[in-house]
Amino acid sequence: MIDDDLKCFVRYLLDADEQKAWEFLYSYIIDGKDSLYIFEQVLTPALRYIGYLWEENAISVADEHIASSICHFLMTKYSVVSETGKTNVAKDKPKAMFTCVEGEEHALGLKMVAALFDEYGWDTRLMGSNTPTTDIIAFANRWRPDIICLSLSTVYSIPHLIQTIKALEKLSFNPQIIIGGRVISIYTLDEFISENLKIFKDLTSLNEWLRTNKEHQNKYVTN
Question: Ranges for the B12-binding domain (predicted)?
Fold first, then answer.
């Protein structure tokens, strides 16, 4: 579970109190906490606790949606205040696109992932939730990213994940495929996943991978 401070933060989210929720989050910025800490130690556990409350019938779907909406607001405001993504990089940035698979509505975690890529100097495109496989493929063919990140939070999205992976693996420019999300952190999906994909179960391991690749001359797409 989470501590009392985070429970207060969750209450601000559920009450749609943008001001108090932002003041709570901003206190971590003042204390010098980086994006990884704020995402992994504040927002993620708060969202998981909200999910737990919903599973226990302590809150409604409407409550969960309100809290998620406030979190999206906080993420947008944080990106402006912290100036994430405004790094000095070479003109030809590596490119990464981010999308939830078809049927998957939870995109906040994916938004955090995209923010981390921004901070490491990537050119990013965030497609958000519930993107049809055909549209994912069409955009990928048009933009030709180095990396394609897929997210899923429910087991019901696994068939769409498998379908999307199979389609992406047929792309002629052979992008690196990264998979993450709540389901990945809970279940083992090795039987569904081919060996040439990367799986990250948390933001800490993803951040370490980004940092290591940054130190190796931006050769991001090596396994």
Answer: 93-220
Query: Domains in the chain, start-ordered, CATH in brackets?
Result: 4-81 (1.10.1240.10), 95-215 (3.40.50.280)
Residue ranges of the chain with pLDDT lower than 70? 84-91, 192-193, 195, 216-223
Q: Is 122 exposed, middle or buried (0-12, 13-18, 19+ CB in 10 A)?
A: buried
Evaluate whether 104 touches 151 at the Cβ level (below 8 Å): yes
The sign of the torsion formed by the CA atoms of 178, 215, 28, 202 equals positive
Which tokens go with 95? Answer: 């490119």
Count Cβ atoms below 10 Å from residue 205 Cβ, excluding itself: 13
pLDDT in tens, 135-189: 999 999 999 999 999 998 888 888 899 899 999 999 999 999 999 988 887 777 7
DSSP state of 14: H
C-alpha of 81 from chain center: 19
Instruction: Please list, in sequence order, all residues whose beta carbon lies within 8 angstroms of the beta carbon of residue 124, skipping any fewer than 6 positions away.
Output: 85, 95, 96, 97, 98, 114, 117, 118
DSSP secondary structure code for residue 101 in this structure? P
CB burial string 155-169: b at 16+ within 10 A, e below: eebbebbeebbeebe
Decide if 148 contacts 165 (C-beta within 8 A): no
Cα gap 95→122, rounded to integer Å? 6
